[in-house]
């Protein structure tokens, strides 16, 4: 049986992701579920969940696929692919994006996904950062607009939850002459601290934002998932001693969004 996951089950799915080494955030379940409460799906056999997936509808025109997981003893039996097709129907005619492991590209291509780039994970030490202020609820419209320009999509429900401070998450804002000009969100994960999204006018500012966001959570090191379009930023990270540890394929089914050059790190590989 295939059905929509409950909010509690979204937490279980994220635990599965942790078991697979994906290193989710400590408070991801709440923000993920808020993005699209009916965008998480499970397959059940004999009353037990054996596979899961998310297809989160961020807007009327864009969705993102992630958390595609299957219990090892149920792999190769067609259950996961049936759930894949069931979940994709939730997106309707929307463009759907995903960040998938490279060895699965051919499988995704058979479902209409085309490769557009890659996302590389960089890990390294934080440095002292300039003092930047924390985001406030009043900043949300401006930060949503910056995120929309950077990603080429609108996702207000996700950002409303993702940018809300809690014990394990902080968002720092860079102010410009006309209001917020950039921001970065840090979140504590099962291992270490991830920073994303990072939206900034240039690479130097992006690094300063990341350092400041890490410092807000007391992290001495951090992880960034950097789009392949930011080649210069990747080189700057390597020059600073960051190491690339993992890469995913960014693929879309449908017309890819028109992103700007201000996105230096994605929010999460699961929801974009």
Automatic annotation (TrEMBL):
SUPFAM superfamilies: Acyl-CoA N-acyltransferases (Nat). The keyword Transferase applies. The keyword Transferase applies. Residues 1-139 form the N-acetyltransferase domain. GO terms for molecular function: acyltransferase activity, transferring groups other than amino-acyl groups. Transmembrane segments: none annotated. Keywords: Transferase. This is Acetyltransferase (GNAT) domain-containing protein.
């Amino acid at each position: 049986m295939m059905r929509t996951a409950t909010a509690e089950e979204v937490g279980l799915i994220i635990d599965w992701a942790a078991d697979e080494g994906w290193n989710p955030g400590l408070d991801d379940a709440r923000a993920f579920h808020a993005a699209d409460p009916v965008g998480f799906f499970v397959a059940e056999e004999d009353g037990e969940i054996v596979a899961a997936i998310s297809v989160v509808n961020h807007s009327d025109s864009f969705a993102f696929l992630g958390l595609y997981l299957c219990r090892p003893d149920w792999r190769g039996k067609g259950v996961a692919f049936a759930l894949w097709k069931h979940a994709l129907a939730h997106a309707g005619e929307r463009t759907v994006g995903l960040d998938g492991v490279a060895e699965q590209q051919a499988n995704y291509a058979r479902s209409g996904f085309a490769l557009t780039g890659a996302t590389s994970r960089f890990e390294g030490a934080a440095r002292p950062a300039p003092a930047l202020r924390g985001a406030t609820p009043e900043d949300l419209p401006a930060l949503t607009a910056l995120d929309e320009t950077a990603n080429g999509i609108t996702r207000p429900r996700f950002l409303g939850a993702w940018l809300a401070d809690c014990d394990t998450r902080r968002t720092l804002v860079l102010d410009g002459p006309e209001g917020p000009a950039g921001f970065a969100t840090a979140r504590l994960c099962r291992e270490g601290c991830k920073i994303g999204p990072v939206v900034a006018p240039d690479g130097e500012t992006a690094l300063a934002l990341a350092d400041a966001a890490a410092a807000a959570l007391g992290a001495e090191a951090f992880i960034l998932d950097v789009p392949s379009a930011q080649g210069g930023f990747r080189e700057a990270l390597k020059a600073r001693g960051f190491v690339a540890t993992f890469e995913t394929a960014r693929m879309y089914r449908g017309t890819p969004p028109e992103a700007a050059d201000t996105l230096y790190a994605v929010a999460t590989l699961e929801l974009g």
